[in-house]
């Protein structure tokens, strides 16, 4: 059975990607088997063997294969196993049985050729051979047991060389085609990866510049005796400004990645999320938040608003379009220092014009094609194609005019929005806000009396109960006496400013309002306000001045937002079942849960999880590792959902070190409610559990550790934020005592597997090492092992390169020393 499981895994992998071949085969097979039956009655001798019973079974099985989309959700995980049985019975078994019963003949030979061709197309070579052997054996056994004088048709036997040629030649041809496709995909991927890397150089350089600037502001190290390092208010503002610039650069890099992935996958925009936007406001935001490489670039861009207008679209997508056009226009600034960019708003148009070198006329017709880059090196060539797709989704157009040596101008044409449509949108927005906010209690903190009166007027239609405070101290007094649902907080106030108010609330100075939703009302630049408000524990912010609808929508979003602190608070007293075969992996997750006040029961197998669920005390949620031996997480989740017990509906979150799309889809089909990728961070855990406990769907979280460099030499060895959380929980010494020997043991097990050429053992060692290194905060080792583990798991092959094991061993040794050094640095000081 273990051997067959390995062979069957290749069949599952064969059908994991690509078009639904099995579904199409189901429809084709059902129609063909019915048609061939009637042909037999009209053209065959009446005394020929009647296969109606066997044929009806085959037709029914094929129909089940074709109706995949109509299967109940609880049965869909078994579709691939079902298809294996269908192909085994309907192709080799049925065809050989009919050929034997009819004594061979030309129709039997033809049918055998057809079936062989389909079998080669629908299976990998291993399962082709297994199905041929098993199907032929079953048919021959049935024939021998049910016929008095069985005989082997020699005309079929004489065709065996031809049959063998079809199987061998078909699989060789298929293998060569797959190799060619793989080579094409590799080259395309390499080119795209190189282009993205080029695009990300500038954001990363800006992040580096921001970090250097922050380092210059920080006080010099070396102070002793517990002396605090002096940092003045001006230095704090400077640090936040550079931090904001760094975050801007990160956002720019993420935009490049998002834009590229959206364009490559041709993912359509969600028009249901479109809202009415001010063209002048979006342009101003784009110019303000664009990640300029220098002050010269910033000074080269000017905005001219001749007439503002509204359009219906997605703000983020529109910002991507403008960022891309600004980037293209500034490309030649270094070569031509006099380059200028004008962005003009008016007449339902946004025009981006530069006085750069221009574009040749013959190039203009192909300018918006994907992977088309003109006059630039290293770009992805996807930017303008993405711009065109966004504008089409908005119902508008984008066009380019250019004169070589003079100018280039891109025109974004937006469809007109009628006054009635705008009013209806505004009325719908206020009605939705009223449904969410009516009867809620809000504290408005603002030192400007005129601003308070204006804001109260804007909020009057949504039915809020509003109290006012003219400064931060009065606000804290009110918050200590009354419970509020929302706080609308001005940030720049004398004596006690908004940041101090938020920090004191989050520290518990007003216990009833510790987790109140706070919305900052600020005129600070958005990118600076974003980082400062996050640090102060503020949930969101809205620009000042703001129109009525954006203001009430910001309040609604803050009220609906499930903050991580609130999620952690919601876990207090909850009972959580944690199923993972690795005690080391369970330790950190259980510590996070217990710190939030949850009761945790730990088990190490799927069967033990079922037994725990069947006990008298119910669980509020289950965290389930997918890679447990024996009864894995997917099988356990299916068993829970199919149990018909009171606990069959318990929320289940998947835990895994493998985060590809098929794994996530498999978890959903098994009935799981969410997906967390190891190593799990505390805030991700709290948010995901808080969502499912509140009756929603947990957002799938990707691994924090995987966000860094893929190698071990260019990035940090350790995830010190994770190690700091262990130290805070009192687990650091335990981690060093247990995790380090276990990592060394797993590296040794991996070396033994490589020497023995045991790919299965190597896969298990890599799986355990991946989880262990992630949980231990061994960032670089986690990334290196993940890079090696993926081909071993997905393609059942050894990693490329002759020295990959030596790299893992060397990195493990460096990591071991780095972890020990970290532990030594953070040992508690002995009292004098």
Q: What is the overall silhouette?
A: globular
Strand element count: 17
Question: What's the story with the biggest beta sheet?
Answer: 5 strands, mixed
Computed over alpha carbons, the radius of gyration is 33 Å
> What's the average pLDDT?
80
Low-pLDDT regions: 701-714
Distance between the termini: 65 Å
Helix content: 55-70%
Count of discrete domains: 5
Q: Briefly note the structural class of the backbone.
A: alpha/beta
Strand order, largest beta sheet: 2-4-5-7-6
What proportion of the residues form beta strands (DSSP E)? 5-15%
Can you give a write-up of this model?
- By secondary structure, the chain is of the alpha/beta class.
- It folds into five domains: about 1-160, no CATH class; about 270-415, Histidine kinase-like ATPase, C-terminal domain (Heat Shock Protein 90, 2-Layer Sandwich), CATH 3.30.565; about 420-525 and about 540-560, Response regulator (Rossmann fold), CATH 3.40.50; about 565-705, Response regulator (Rossmann fold, 3-Layer(aba) Sandwich); about 720-825, Four Helix Bundle (Hemerythrin (Met), subunit A).
- Helix content is about 55%, strand content about 10%.
- The strands form four sheets. The protein has a five-stranded mixed β-sheet with strand order 2-4-5-7-6.
- Helix 22 packs parallel to helix 23.
- The model is unreliable at about 700-715 (pLDDT under 50).
């Amino acid at each position: 059975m273990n051997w067959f499981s390995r062979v069957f895994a290749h069949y599952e992998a064969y059908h994991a990607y690509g078009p639904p071949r099995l579904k199409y085969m189901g429809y084709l097979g059902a129609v063909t088997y019915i048609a061939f039956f009637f042909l037999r009655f009209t053209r065959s001798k009446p005394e020929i063997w009647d296969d109606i019973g066997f044929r009806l079974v085959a037709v029914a099985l094929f129909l089940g294969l074709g109706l995949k989309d109509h299967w109940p959700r609880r049965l869909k995980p078994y579709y691939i196993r079902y298809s294996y049985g269908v192909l085994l019975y309907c192709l080799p078994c049925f065809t050989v049985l009919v050929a034997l019963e009819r004594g061979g003949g030309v129709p039997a030979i033809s049918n055998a050729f057809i079936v062989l061709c389909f079998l080669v197309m629908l299976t990998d070579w291993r399962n082709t051979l297994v199905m041929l052997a098993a199907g032929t054996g079953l048919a021959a056994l049935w024939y021998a047991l049910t016929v008095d004088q069985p005989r082997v048709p020699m005309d079929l036997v004489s065709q065996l060389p031809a049959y063998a040629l079809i199987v061998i030649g078909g699989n060789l041809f298929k293998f060569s085609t797959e190799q060619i496709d793989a080579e094409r995909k590799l080259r395309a991927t390499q080119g795209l990866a190189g282009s993205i890397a080029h695009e990300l150089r500038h954001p990363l350089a800006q992040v580096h510049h921001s970090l250097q600037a922050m380092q210059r502001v920080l006080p010099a190290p070396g102070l002793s005796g517990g002396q605090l390092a002096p940092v003045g208010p001006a230095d704090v503002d400077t640090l936040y400004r550079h931090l904001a610039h760094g975050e801007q650069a990160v956002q720019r890099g993420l935009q490049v990645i998002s834009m590229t992935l959206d364009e490559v996958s041709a993912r359509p925009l969600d028009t249901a999320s479109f809202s009415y936007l001010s063209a002048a406001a979006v342009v101003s935001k784009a110019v303000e938040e664009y990640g300029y490489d220098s002050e010269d670039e910033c000074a080269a861009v000017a905005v001219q608003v001749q007439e503002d207008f509204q359009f219906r679209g997605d703000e983020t997508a529109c910002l991507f379009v403008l960022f891309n056009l600004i980037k293209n226009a500034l490309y030649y600034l270094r070569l031509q220092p006099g380059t200028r960019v004008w962005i003009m708003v008016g007449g339902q148009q946004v025009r981006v014009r530069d006085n750069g070198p221009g574009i040749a006329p013959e190039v203009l017709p192909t300018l918006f094609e994907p992977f088309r880059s003109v006059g630039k090196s290293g770009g992805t060539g996807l930017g303008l194609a993405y711009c065109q797709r966004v504008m089409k989704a908005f119902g508008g157009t984008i066009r380019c005019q250019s004169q070589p040596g003079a100018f280039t101008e891109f025109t974004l044409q937006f469809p007109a929005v009628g006054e009635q449509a705008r009013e209806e949108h505004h009325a719908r927005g206020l009605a939705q806000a009223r449904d969410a906010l009516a009867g809620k209690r809000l504290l408005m903190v603002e030192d400007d009396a005129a601003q308070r009166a204006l804001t109260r007027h804007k909020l009057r239609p949504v039915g809020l109960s509003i109290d006012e405070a003219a400064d931060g101290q009065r606000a804290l007094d009110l918050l200590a006496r009354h419970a509020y649902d929302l706080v609308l907080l001005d940030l720049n106030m004398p004596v006690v400013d908004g940041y101090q108010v938020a920090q004191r609330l989050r520290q518990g100075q007003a216990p009833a309002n510790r987790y109140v939703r706070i919305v900052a009302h600020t005129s600070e630049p958005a990118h600076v306000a974003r980082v400062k408000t996050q640090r102060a524990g503020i949930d969101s912010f809205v620009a000042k001045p703001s129109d009525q609808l954006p203001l009430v929508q910001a309040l609604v979003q803050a009220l609906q937002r499930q903050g991580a602190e609130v999620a952690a608070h919601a876990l207090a007293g909850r009972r959580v079942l944690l199923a993972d075969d690795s005690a080391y992996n369970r330790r950190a997750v259980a510590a996070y849960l217990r710190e939030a006040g949850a009761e945790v029961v730990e088990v190490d197998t799927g069967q033990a999880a079922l037994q725990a669920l069947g006990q008298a005390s119910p669980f509020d949620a289950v965290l389930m590792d997918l890679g447990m031996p024996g009864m894995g997480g997917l099988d356990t989740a299916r068993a829970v959902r199919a149990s018909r017990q009171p606990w069959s509906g318990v929320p289940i979150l998947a835990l895994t070190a493998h985060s590809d799309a098929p794994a996530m889809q498999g978890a959903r089909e098994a009935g799981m409610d969410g997906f967390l990728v190891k190593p799990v961070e505390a805030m991700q855990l709290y948010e995901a559990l808080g969502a499912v406990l509140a009756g929603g769907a947990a957002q799938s979280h990707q691994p924090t550790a995987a966000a860094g460099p893929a190698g071990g030499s260019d990035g940090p060895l350790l995830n010190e934020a994770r190690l700091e959380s262990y130290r805070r929980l009192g687990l650091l010494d335990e981690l060093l005592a247990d995790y380090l020997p276990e990592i060394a043991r797993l590296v040794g097990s991996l070396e033994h597997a490589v020497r023995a050429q045991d790919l299965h053992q190597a896969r298990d060692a890599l799986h355990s090492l991946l989880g262990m290194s992630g949980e231990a905060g061994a960032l670089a080792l986690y990334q290196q092992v993940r890079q090696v583990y993926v081909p071993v798991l997905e393609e059942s092959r050894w990693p490329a390169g002759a020295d990959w094991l030596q790299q893992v061993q060397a990195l493990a040794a460096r990591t071991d020393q780095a972890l020990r050094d970290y532990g030594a640095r953070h040992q508690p000081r002995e009292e004098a």
